[in-house]
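Input sequence (415 aa), recorded before submission:
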Amino acid sequence: MTERRSRLSSRDGVMLVGGMVLTLGTVYFWTAWARGGETSSEVVQALPAAGLEAPSDQLIVAPAVVRTAGIESVAVGTGPASERLQTTGVVEPDQQQIQEVTPLIAGRVERMSVALGDSVEAGSTLLTVLSPQIAELQGTLTSAVARRVEAEATFNRTTQLVELGAGAGKDLVSAEAALLAAQAQVTQVQQSLGALGATAAESDRADTATAVVAIRAPMSGQVIARTVNAGAWIEAGTPVLTIANLNTVWVIANVPEGRLGAVCLGASVEIRGPTLGASSLRGRVNYVDPQLDQATRTARVRVDVPNPRQALKVGMFVDVTVQGASIHEASELTVPSDAVQRIGERTVMFVPTDDPERFEVRDVDLGDEVGGARIVRSGLAVGDRVVTKGGFTLKSLLLKGQFGEDEELTSQAEP
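Predicted structure, token format:
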């Protein structure tokens, strides 16, 4: 019995020692693993400091990429603060550069030489009209020319007789008066034909008399309205065409009465529209309606806008930004619009650092855009520089580092 108890005690001791060794080994390896994890974490946290990984608000770019992208930057600018008004407007012809073509004769339209939208030169033929009124005047002119020829012959014969002593002086006076009357009648009919649109060639000679009148363009421009076709009968004074010079147009904007304080005569205006793309046109306010529309409580503001390429079309809706007067002595920061980058919901700019390969990603709050520049409300300060050329390359590298290559390509494909 005693011998058996001794054997059990020895076995229990061996198991106890083995358990202690196993426990100590587990504790050792656990401690070693834990220390190894802390070491790995410390290494990961040390990578940014070593330049292997940039913080989330910075971007490190390889020197070769910097050279290839041709990155350029400009300093943040400052200017006097001013109130800006943004609204919409509609394009209209300049009423001082528009004319209606209104024949002063009644007749039938024989031929139309222009269509709606055609460009015409001053003096070019627009249409021809067969007019009974012109036919009657041409007949009157033929008779007047015949009487003038007869009066000239009588005057010449009487002059010769008087010179020969075979004629009386009173006969010469009478012949001269008849000649002057005949010439006056011819001149009167010619002037009547000219006032009605007949050309000199059609009225100078009786043997070229015609009842067809060519209606000519009073100015150079574009046909913006046409109300008749060939074969139509028109009455005297009926408008048939409208010609406008669209090299300068009006933009009419309706401004609420509460914002009229930002508008003054001569104020600079920026116009953007669907046919202008990323560019814009500049104009100036030349009229502010002194009366408000009682229904909308707005006033019409007229802007003169040069339109040399005729990119602005009559009736087109455009965006209007009116540059108001400076506000006291305040100033505001401005940056070129090319420096602005959009990353999801963020509006950012890349700010160069002292290290030419490191760029700071700066979130900014921007205001209006005027003249290709954006107003900076917050995020930048005087003395900062922002990347203007090569910013898209930096944006691509930033997206690749954040989301991976697939997400970068997807984001670049989005408009």
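Checked by second reader. The mean pLDDT is 79.
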